[in-house]
Amino acid sequence: MKKCSRQRFFEEKNRQKERKGAADSAVEGADDAEDKEMSDRVKIRKSSGYGESFRAAFPHTIPVLTGYLFIGMAFGVMIQEKGYNFLWAMFMSLCCYAGSGQYLAVNFFVPGVSFLQMIFMEFMVNIRHIFYGLSRLERFSKMGKKRWYMIFSLTDETYSLLYITKTPEGMDESKFLFAIAVLDQSYWILGSGIGALLGEWLPFDGTGIDFAMTALFVVILVEQWMEEKKRLFELIGLGCGLFCLLVFGAENFILPTMLLMMAVLLSGKQLFMREKEEEGHAD
């Protein structure tokens, strides 16, 4: 009898040890899982920093870098020919980041141009940015205070990059897009300064150099064409441009083209949204 009770006592003791060991293993497993989760969060937080965002964004901006250096240099040469040094060129590119609008503005640095005329001409040249902004409203609204700079920096080339570039996995999207915009403007400012300095130091014939902007647009279009599968939006843009070129002529077709594209896209909004969703599901 005593032997049986002693045996049951040791068996119960062993079961308690086994339960305690299982509980300790469960706690250790939970701790390991929690440590892993914290480590993953730290990794994501590190990959979401500004430094990592700029490093990830830089390769995507190389086509703009090569284009903006030469286009910015052309602007620098033009403004230097009007008697302004490289500091003025860089300052204007910092505060009035408008690309083709800056090319146009150089022609206003002469007597006899009215303030209202300058406003009207700049508005007509940059009216296409209205359509860029409308298509970015939802995305920029999630970027906090950075959205103000994103609106300011939305040039043709930056818009194209924001459209075709996908945010890397684990990266903070707002910081990644912000990095693209900042890098693009820095290339433009650098090119403006280099061009103005070259214009001061070297005899330079700037005839035809502004065609570099058209060439850059062609490169970006080719990238978008290769990125897309159905190319519906590119075909709509090309079709509207060709139609308005034939109807209005080379001097007056840009504004009608933008208005026609907006009308087509708005009228077929539901269809285009479905196309995008189906393409996303296919990916």
Question: Which key phrases capture this entry?
Answer:
283 residues, mainly alpha, 14 helices, globular
Q: Helix count, per DSSP?
A: 14
Largest sheet: none
Provide the gyration radius in Å.
Answer: 30 Å
Mean pLDDT: 76
N-C termini distance: 74 Å
Low-confidence stretches: 41-47
**Overall body shape:** globular
Beta-strand proportion: under 5%
Structural class: mainly alpha
Fraction in helix: over 70%
> How many DSSP E strands?
0
> How do the SSEs run, as a string of H and E?
HHHHHHHHHHHHHH
Structure description:
The protein is mostly helical and 283 residues long. Among the domains are: 1-47; 53-202, no CATH class. It is 78% helix and 0% strand. The longest helix is centred in the first third of the chain and has 46 residues, at 2-47. The relative contact order is 0.12.
Brief overview, please?
With 283 residues, this protein is mainly alpha-helical. The chain is built from 14 helices and no strands.
Secondary structure blueprint with pairings:
Blueprint: H1 2-47, H2 50-57, H3 62-81, H4 86-95, H5 100-106, H6 115-125, H7 128-140, H8 146-152, H9 156-164, H10 173-201, H11 211-227, H12 232-248, H13 254-267, H14 269-282
